[in-house]
Structures are given as C-alpha cells and as structure tokens.
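We examine the record.

___
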Amino acid sequence: MIKINDKMRVLVALVLTFGVLAYLLHGDQQAVQSSPADTPAEGPARELSGLEKTGGTTQTTSPASSGAKTDIKAEDILKSATEKAGQGGTAFFVEYRLERDRRRSQQIDMLKQIIDNPNAPGDSKQEAQKRLVDLTKQMDLELQLEKLIVAKGYKEAAVFIQPQAVNVVVMAEKLTEEDANKIGDLVSRSTGRPREQISIIPQK
C-alpha cells in the first residue's frame, strides 16, 4: 500500500508540474504574439523625440540646402556695421569683423549639428565636414590678408571670403587705380581667386 501511495503522489506531482509549465508556456506565447503590435508605437515615438532634439530639420538636410538658409551676404555685414558704428573710423572695422564672425558662428553651428546628428546621411556629414574645414581656412586667411594689407600702408582693412567672391574694405577716402591693383593682386595671389571675383571698397 505504501508503494502505491508513493506512486500516486509522484503522478499527481508530475501532473501538477506539467500543468504549471503549460500555463507558463501559454502565457509566454501570448506575450510574444502581442509584442509586435506594441513595437510600432514605440518606434515612431523614439524617432519623433530625436527630431525634436535636432529641431526636426537637420535629419535630412544637406549642407547645400542648410547653407542656403545661412548664406552670408557681404552687403548685410556692411550695412549692419555702418548702422552700429557710423560711416567711418576704426569702430566701423571692429563692428564689421564682429558681425562677420557672428554670422560665421551661425554657419559653423549648423554644420556641427549635421555632423553630430546620428540620423544625418553619411554624404551630408562628409559635405558638412568639408565645408567646416573650408570655413576655418577662410577665417585664418582673412586675418592674414588684413595684416598684409595694413602692412602695405593702409590704416585698417577687413576681408570677407565667400565661395564665389572676396570683399575687401579698406580705410581710405578713395582708392586710386594703383591702390586697387596692389590690393587686388595681393588678395588674388593669396586666395587663388580671379580679380573679377574681388571687390575693393574704400571706407573712411
């Protein structure tokens, strides 16, 4: 009798064990079946969150299109410096450089956003990096040219290099043809730009 009872207990235990396992297995299958329906709800939410952090525009914006929004116009810098410092004096050139550098900083910030954005395409990042390097070189060259022009005997000078133009503002009441040629040749040799892309503006 004891042996039969022992067998029965073992059997009952096995049945209960299988029952629990079947219940747990059934629950896991339901969880697996329901998870695909839940996943899409999370995916777009993460994508939207990423877009909000980057302003929602840098994900697919190429440096070319973003550059179009932040293009710096030489006449705008000239106008802003004139409004803040008046028509003449050293203060004008200080304001001109400050305005130029401020707008350049905006360009650099936008390029860095593209480079740091994990969602940006690889070719956009490469273009942004190249543009960033070019901007850095242009800024260094502008400072060198300003010093070289002053060394030629002019009291003040401000240079602004753009992709298709170079603007040079020189402190002078007027510039002779000789002055224009001297400055133009210097800028052309230093930048590799043709003379027709170089504008020289006298500023009192």
The chain has two domains: 1-53, 62-203. The two ends are 121 Å apart (CA to CA). The longest strand covers residues 166-171. The longest helix spans residues 2-53.
